[in-house]
């Protein structure tokens, strides 16, 4: 029995189960968008997140009795007698706001690791739930978009690069000065609202970089995309260029730059020396 192969199968089954269960909610939300939003009791935001989480747990329990769940929704939950062998770090729905506003860009994110540490993630899945496109990776075996091996873009001048930047923060005045030079040099800035999926877009060269230096993104949101981008050949580091090795916990947050290796180098320089005129 190949451990990795089995995990992949389990994660794909989790994804299928989520899609089955959330499709009616998405259809309902598209019919009555104006009634959706924040609200106590029956809050559709929570409903879809919890349905997706339940679907993941249901499928996991069909295959394994013991594991530790590290979830954006429910926190850390131990199942079975040996929960410290397998850690499942999940963000059941990444991009919930997109779901409720009818923007077709949201994902589920599942990472399997041997310890609650990012560096031990060995199998990962990020699934674009609207378009049913799935990104997977296994440590040492590359990354795939559905059945095709993926790799990041190459040889793109910074001026032509498509760069995702997450600026959603209450400390905008602190991070924007660091990014001004990058923003000035770039013609194509994007942020689509589901960071795990945007990191996968870097992994397969759809976009050239994704920059989130806010320090606000939960580790549960990026654990799977981290492995997918690394295995594809993209670079994903701290804003200082250091490897990301963080504890996987719902409260733990990270700042990072993910990019093709050439653009990554340039972005690091622009962030280190925001005042310099020339790269
Ligand atoms: Mg979420």
Which short descriptors sum up this protein?
279 residues, binds magnesium ion, alpha+beta, 7 helices, eight-stranded mixed beta sheet, five-stranded mixed beta sheet, globular, Fructose-1,6-Bisphosphatase, Chain A, domain 1, D-Maltodextrin-Binding Protein, domain 2, 2 domains
Q: What name is given to the CATH topology of the largest domain?
A: Fructose-1,6-Bisphosphatase, Chain A, domain 1
Shape category: globular
CATH superfamily of the largest domain: Fructose-1,6-Bisphosphatase, subunit A, domain 1
Q: Indicate the CATH class of the largest domain.
A: Alpha Beta
The percentage of residues in β strands lies in 25-35%
What's the total helix number?
A: 7
Most strands sheet: 8 strands, mixed
| Straight-line distance between termini | 51 Å
Write the CATH architecture name of the largest domain: 2-Layer Sandwich
Radius of gyration: 18 Å
| Side-by-side strand order of the widest sheet | 2-1-3-4-5-6-7-8
Q: H/E element string?
A: HHEEEHEEEEEEHEHEHEEH
Q: Name the hetero compounds present.
A: magnesium ion
Low-confidence stretches: 1-5, 33-43
Structural class given helices, strands, pairing? alpha+beta
Number of domains: 2
**Annotation, overall tally of beta strands:** 13
Q: How helical, in percent, are the residues?
A: 25-40%
Average residue-wise pLDDT:
90
């Amino acid at each position: 029995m190949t451990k990795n192969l089995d995990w992949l199968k389990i994660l794909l089954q989790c994804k299928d189960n989520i899609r089955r269960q959330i499709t009616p909610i998405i259809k309902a939300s598209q019919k009555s968008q104006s009634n959706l939003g924040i609200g106590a009791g029956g809050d559709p935001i929570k409903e879809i997140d919890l349905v997706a989480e339940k679907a993941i747990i249901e499928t996991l329990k069909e295959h394994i009795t013991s594991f530790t769940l590290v979830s954006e929704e429910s926190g850390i939950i131990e199942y079975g007698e040996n929960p410290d062998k397998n850690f499942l770090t999940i963000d059941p729905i990444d991009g919930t706001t997109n779901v409720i506003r009818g923007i077709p860009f949201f994902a589920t994110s599942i990472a399997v690791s041997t310890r609650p540490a990012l560096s031990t993630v060995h199998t990962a899945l990020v699934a674009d739930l609207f378009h049913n496109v799935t990104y997977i990776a296994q440590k040492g075996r590359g990354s795939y978009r559905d059945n095709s091996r993926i790799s990041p873009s190459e040889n793109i001048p910074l001026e032509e690069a498509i760069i995702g930047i997450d600026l959603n923060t209450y400390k905008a005045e602190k991070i924007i000065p660091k990014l001004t030079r990058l923003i000035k040099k770039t013609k194509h800035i994007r942020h689509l609202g589901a960071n795990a999926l945007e990191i996968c877009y870097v992994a397969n060269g759809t976009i050239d970089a994704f920059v989130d230096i806010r320090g606000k993104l939960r580790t549960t949101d990026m654990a799977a995309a981290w492995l997918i981008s690394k295995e594809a050949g993209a670079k994903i580091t701290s804003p200082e260029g250091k490897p990301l090795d963080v504890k996987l916990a719902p409260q733990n947050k990270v700042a990072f730059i993910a990019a093709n290796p050439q653009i990554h180098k340039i972005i690091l320089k622009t962030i280190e020396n925001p005042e310099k005129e020339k790269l």
